[in-house]
């Protein structure tokens, strides 16, 4: 019997969705009307996996919603509505849920994405499943698949140590920057850094059929280079463009399909993956 | 410390969503464009709550998706896209997930609602969180709030014993009938029967500010009258209209706000509610 532990998260998702509409970017992009494409995404936040019983409720609510908002940023899209499924045990302290929902309201005021529905059901641990609905001007969503040899590689902020610094619970989804980058018309590929620069850049390389060379001295970091490359949950934007931007330029796209070099040497793969830890 | 068990599901949802956009129908209805309103809904399906380890994977997949499709039917709306969060333990047998996803594909062929994205995360038990996106002609969604004194009360099929008969895992979402009922232009209120006729009708009475008198001899049932009134998960449509329809007519709407009579006597409240069992 093959288990999820045997397969790992990414293989399992690939196998399950092989017969379904292509799912590979941060959000699904679907036709809506003459002006806009519909953007859909979802993220689960699960106790003992993504947060712990001592995490303040506001931080839980922030991470649950802002992970989804960051998915919209990753596409250069505008989030509009959120639907939230809460799972909790009968012994769940109600005030914790009230504080989580109060945070949802605060985030609505900042980012304009409103919780419009959801459900509450019984389960063994506290979970928040946030579904997001939004839009992007027709055909303008920024995908992972457009990077071209010679493009610069940018990140929007320092990477690494998001657990130690608490950034994983306080990060700002880069919606404004994402919109500006999309409107520049020069960004060829974009995503958010959720699994670490080394892992996430590989998604762009694979989707675009290109390679990349990173320059370690240019990677903005909080801790060590190792942490900047492999820690996850930074939620900065990672994008490629032939144009100049006032963001840290960490490397260059090459024509060597799926080859990832750091200072001229092959970079090893290593990343957090659900079920394999 | 007040817990979810102290409050019960309905009070908890009401309290949490008090400051958010009104959430009270089966789906949220939001402005989309000149022609259509956007319809959003979500339902969780949780092991040991909504299904058990011995439930065949196809039945789990069916219930997960068709509960959401039934929410669309409840509004007279058309489901278009589904996003699914799967939660599972590392020891989860992968074939079970493959069979669940194969059922999603079968249901797509029948009902036209396609799984376009989602996530897979680690947790203690198997869960499926299905989020649905769809549409309805502008201003035409059937709500719970339009029932008027003198309307007939209809249900679309026999009620009760859905656990014993297995209907809870095999029901057909009444999308076709729902569309016809909406297009008739005569339906004043509608929802699906998920918590039992007695409980769900009270939602219509409350939302519409009316009362109702049920005629026990007219309630189509699989088992006893008690089971037809209080069992849940029938997923038939419950609707009110002044017009004649070829569906079982189980009672009449009255002007006595929130008074629910069965054969002339007050009907007691009793229903499955999460956290209170």
TrEMBL record, chains A, B:
Molecular function terms in GO for this entry? Answer: ATP binding; magnesium ion binding; thiamine-phosphate kinase activity
- Provide the binding site for ATP: 101, 118-119, 144, 194
Kindly give the Gene3D superfamilies that the UniProt entry links to this protein.
PurM-like C-terminal domain, PurM-like, N-terminal domain
Instruction: Identify the CDD domains for this entry.
Output: ThiL
GO BP field: thiamine biosynthetic process; thiamine diphosphate biosynthetic process
Catalytic activity annotation: thiamine phosphate + ATP = thiamine diphosphate + ADP
EC identifiers of the protein = 2.7.4.16
Q: Which segments constitute the PurM-like N-terminal domain? A: 24-136
Please state what class of enzyme this protein is: transferase
Q: In which pathway does it act?
A: Cofactor biosynthesis; thiamine diphosphate biosynthesis; thiamine diphosphate from thiamine phosphate: step 1/1
Query: Any idea which positions bind Mg(2+) 2?
Result: 43, 71
Per UniProt, residues of the PurM-like C-terminal domain are 164-240
User: Is Transcription a UniProt keyword of this protein?
Assistant: no
Residues annotated as binding Mg(2+) 1 are 42-43, 119
Binding of substrate occurs at: 50, 233, 272
Q: List positions binding Mg(2+) 4.
A: 26, 41, 71
Residues reported to bind Mg(2+) 3: 26, 71, 192
Q: Does the keyword Lyase apply?
A: no
Q: Which UniProt keyword terms apply here?
A: ATP-binding, Kinase, Magnesium, Metal-binding, Nucleotide-binding, Thiamine biosynthesis, Transferase
Which family does this protein fall into?
Belongs to the thiamine-monophosphate kinase family.
**Other comments on record:** Reaction mechanism of ThiL seems to utilize a direct, inline transfer of the gamma-phosphate of ATP to TMP rather than a phosphorylated enzyme intermediate.
* Protein name as catalogued: Thiamine-monophosphate kinase
